[in-house]
Specification:
Number of helices of chain B: 0
Radius of gyration of chain B: 14 Å
Helix content of chain B: under 10%
Structural class of chain A: mainly beta
Oligomer: heterodimer
Mean pLDDT of chain B: 91
Distance between the termini of chain B: 41 Å
Strand content of chain B: over 45%
Shape of chain B: globular
Largest sheet of chain B: 6 strands, mixed
Number of strands of chain B: 12
Mean pLDDT of chain A: 91
Number of strands of chain A: 11
Distance between the termini of chain A: 32 Å
Chain lengths: 114, 114
């Protein structure tokens, strides 16, 4: 595996389900990100982790719970979501968190909440 | 706050046509500017970037020039191919504060027909 991988690629869940999204980066990076991509809207930054420590929570509802056990893995735990949470969830990583650090993106998980 | 505005799509072109996607920005500091591309079913990839005024970023035949006087970073390609069909995102990273935060435009869908 190379780059940034995400599983599953597609997920359908009911509002009462609990599920988790997984992201893994094979680039030796120290920072990881979760973004939400909704149709016809700019990407929304959700969470940022640097060296496993959360440095940003962009006013994300508590039904989204991130976990970063090490610099290579990032999870997004989902619980009692709403239909409006249906979107493409993108994970990214970068070497550091300075402005010149290029972010590398995974292919995303297409989430549908019924 | 920082923001990016890019032309709405979709844009449909014939092969070998000239492509321009307009992007303007608002920033409080001295941002770096980026163009990302998202091919169908994939994550975002950095296409090109510019870190200071009058810089020109270029890659794969695409170019964009950082124009501070007009706060613009328009993307251009002289002769598009079918393989250029994708969604293009303009983004900025402002050095003035949380400089790891990328602010994205809403994306422009480009379809190139043979």
């Amino acid at each position: 595996e190379t780059g940034v991988t995400q599983t599953p690629r597609h997920l359908v869940m009911g509002m009462t389900n609990k599920k988790s999204l997984k992201c893994e980066q094979h680039l030796g990076h120290n920072a990881m990100y979760w973004y939400k991509q909704s149709a016809k809207k700019p990407l929304e930054l959700m969470f940022v982790y640097n060296f496993k420590e959360q440095t940003e929570n962009n006013s994300v509802p508590s039904r989204f719970s991130p976990e970063c056990p090490n610099s290579s893995h990032l999870f997004l735990h989902l619980h009692t979501l709403q239909p409006e949470d249906s979107a493409l969830y993108l994970c990214a990583s970068s070497q550091g968190i300075g402005f010149n650090n290029e972010q590398f993106f995974g292919p995303g998980t297409r989430l549908t909440v019924l | 706050g920082d923001s990016v505005t890019q032309m709405e799509g979709p844009v449909t072109l014939s092969e070998e046509a000239f492509l321009t996607i307009n992007c303007t920005y608002t920033a409080t500091g001295y941002p770096s500017l980026f163009w990302y591309v998202q091919y169908p079913g994939e994550g975002l990839q950095l296409l090109l970037k510019a870190t200071k005024a009058d810089d020109k970023g270029s890659n794969k035949g695409f170019e964009a020039t950082y124009r501070k006087e007009t706060t613009s970073f328009h993307l251009e390609k002289g002769s598009v191919q079918v393989s250029d069909s994708a969604v293009y995102f303009c983004a900025l990273s402002d050095r003035g504060g949380n400089d790891y935060k990328l602010s994205f435009g809403a994306g422009t869908t480009v379809t190139v027909r043979a």
